[in-house]
Amino acid sequence: MTPRKTALKTFAVLSAAALTAGVCSSAATASPLAFAELQANAISGATQVANALGAASGGIYLEHGTAVVNVVDDAAMRQVQAAGFTAKKVKHTFAALTGVKNQLDAVKNVPQTAWGIDTRTNQVVVKVYDAASKVTADKVSAAAAKYGDAVRVEHRTGKLELYIKDGDAIQNSQGRCSLGFNVTRGGSPFLLTAGHCTNLGGTWSGGDVSGAQVVESDCPGADSGLLTRPNGTGPGEINTGQKITSAATPTVGEQMQKQGSTTGGGSGEVTSVDESVNFDVGVLNHEFGTTAHTDHGDSGGPAYDGSKGLGTLSGGDTQTSYFYPLTLELQAYGLQLA
Length: 338
Fold this sequence. Notes:
The chain has 338 residues and is α+β, with helices and mostly antiparallel strands. The chain has helices spanning 21-24, 32-53, 74-82, 94-104, 134-145, 195-198, 326-333, and strands at residues 57-63, 66-71, 86-89, 113-118, 123-129, 151-156, 161-162, 170-171, 176-177, 181-185, 188-193, 203-206, 209-218, 224-228, 246-247, 255-260, 264-279, 282-290, 302-305, 308-316, 321-325, 336-337. A six-stranded antiparallel barrel has the order 16-17-18-21-20-19. The longest helix is centred in the N-terminal third of the chain and has 22 residues, at 32-53. The protein is globular. The two termini are 19 Å apart.
């Protein structure tokens, strides 16, 4: 299995006029890369407008490639519409939802639960899995109930699992994972994957990589791991040939793609951001949830949208795959894309 790779390149930015409903309505017929460009520019423009609203912003999301800006008053709605974007009147500001999410983070030792922000529904969504104990389920449900309609509780079947499995991809004597992105630090080449993989230690190999050593490993809390790359830099791209030019923050509603050594390629949609996911090993913070299908052995594999790298896979359940944001990984380790 060829390692997942990235390279640097600059994208041209479309004008705000290209973000109108007329252009976005043609997204369904666009190529995957062209659609990714539409999404990237929609997110960029809408984010600027939302930031200008200050406390009146309810955040943004994408609906079939078209950016929607949530607002809490009529003045903000007029401002968004004047900028050429779709506005939606909501009850809760994005700052308020972030505050609720951060307060829920104070609920500790509650494995098999998760919570994050869903800007599409203007709520913090709390997920309680049937693998959670009754004490845990009651504890989290009681905490969520304090915030009224700012929080939605979902009861889910199955179990949250970190995806790691014996086999062949990048592997050591204890497990198998997937490689996320080629990166550099101080001019030296490294490999980025999931922290719960590198927590296993040892020497890793796979594809054109052999003798890779763990130099950074953070999990729980974060889920980032860094390996040396003794064999040099290699081409900077996903193994499909898609080049990654930048790291970007995921947006609810954004269509994304993923690669993994077990399930291969695939696509999905971002369903939540800034999610705290309580795996049995501990809480992973700032994850983003997606509808992409992944499985054991895919851990560490990349999530991306066209030429934008979004994150590396942590794990999930039968409905949701969780990724740790690439922007945070690059920042934490002082990395650049290869």
